[in-house]
Inverse folding.
């Protein structure tokens, strides 16, 4: 995991559990290398580096500022609690460090806009840490949404997604995602980010007309959302309804169903594939019930998509490619990724507002 020649050199701000996964991804990405890691104490950073087998070339710091002041660091990965994102992402961007920011990217779009404005004015690339968007399966599925494709599922009418996990008592008591002073959005930020993002992705990032939280939300004693269901409605160019359910209280599920006029796509592992080296989805066209409705005329086709690198390494690789284009070729940052993050944040905000207003529909 040492520095490779002509790579984008990463520093990591914080030693969260997800940082272990992304540090590994940096090591796997051919155009990236890890050169620095920091925690609030040098002892904790040294322990993190030792536990993850970082080579001696990786510099270990006892403060985040030291990473940002390291001239050899091109980009930072920020897995800190959401309440700290504005401070450290803004500081990183102001020091010309490109920012890969863990999701949820902010507590609301006002905070996110502060980050994006500084990133834009300093010419640095911004991307959030949504890994599944970078899996080749995602691009493969997207072909079936095109109206010009001969294999289009047709106009999308219904999207359903879930992201649930059975949190342990220890998680529900102590994890940062249930603490209002650290990650106040709870399951809405941590899990619904994926479901909202999948709905927007399927709709070509057109914002929904209205967003409505359902009245089944569960909060902990501190008011943090542990479970939530919501609907997203588009009325143009054709009516589409998306339902999402996200919870720390249910058995693990990562379902995504996208139903069009002529076909449908189903995944059971859309956030984290069952395997690192391949992923699949079910594709169905022209399904009908047979005579007497005692069965179906077709079974779904299981489509397999292989990938040489895990999706988190593909994310790092794409981010690093964009950073290298800016650093080495003088290109401008790609606006696609900040725009995706901002639209996702807008819908997260709308779900939260709807819930606070007694589940009234919020117009976007």
């Amino acid at each position: 995991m040492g520095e490779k020649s002509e790579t984008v050199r990463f520093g990591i701000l914080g030693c969260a559990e997800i940082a272990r996964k992304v540090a590994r991804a940096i090591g796997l990405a051919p155009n990236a290398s890890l050169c620095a890691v920091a925690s609030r104490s040098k002892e904790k950073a040294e322990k993190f580096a030792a536990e993850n087998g970082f080579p001696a070339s990786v510099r270990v710091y006892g403060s985040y500022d030291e990473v940002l002041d390291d001239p050899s660091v091109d980009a930072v990965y920020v897995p800190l609690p959401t309440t700290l994102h504005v401070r450290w992402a803004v500081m990183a961007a102001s020091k010309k460090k490109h920012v890969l920011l863990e999701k949820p990217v902010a507590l609301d779009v006002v905070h996110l806009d502060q980050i994006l404005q500084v990133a834009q004015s300093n010419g640095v690339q911004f991307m959030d840490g949504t890994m599944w968007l970078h899996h080749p399966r995602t691009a493969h599925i997207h072909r079936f949404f095109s109206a010009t494709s001969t294999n289009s599922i047709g106009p999308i009418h219904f999207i359903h997604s879930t992201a649930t996990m059975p949190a342990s008592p220890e998680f529900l008591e102590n994890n940062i995602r249930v603490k209002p002073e650290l990650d106040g959005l709870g399951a809405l930020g941590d899990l619904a980010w994926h479901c909202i993002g999948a709905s927007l992705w399927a709709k070509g990032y057109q914002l929904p007309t209205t967003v409505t939280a359902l009245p089944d939300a569960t909060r902990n004693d501190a008011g943090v959302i542990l479970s939530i269901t919501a609907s997203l409605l588009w009325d143009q160019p054709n009516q589409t309804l998306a339902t999402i359910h996200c919870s720390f209280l249910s058995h693990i599920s990562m379902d995504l169903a996208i139903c069009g006029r002529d076909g449908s796509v189903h995944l059971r592992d859309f956030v984290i594939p069952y395997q690192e080296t391949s992923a699949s989805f079910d594709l169905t066209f022209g399904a009908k019930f047979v005579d007497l409705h005692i069965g179906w005329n077709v079974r779904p086709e299981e489509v397999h998509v292989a990938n040489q690198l895990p999706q988190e390494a593909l994310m790092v690789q794409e981010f690093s490619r964009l950073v290298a284009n800016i650093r080495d070729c003088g290109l401008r940052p790609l606006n696609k990724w900040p725009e995706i993050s901002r639209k996702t944040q807008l819908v997260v905000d709308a779900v939260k507002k709807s819930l606070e207003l007694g589940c009234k529909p919020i117009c976007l």
